Amino acid sequence: MCRAFFMPDRKTSSQRGYGYRWQKAREGFLRKHPLCADHEKRGYVVAAVIVDHIIPHRGDMQLFWDKANWQSLCEQCHNSHKQRLEKSGIITGCNVDGIPLDASHHWNK
Question: Where in the numbering of this chain does the HNH nuclease domain appear (predicted)?
Answer without folding.
Answer: 24-79
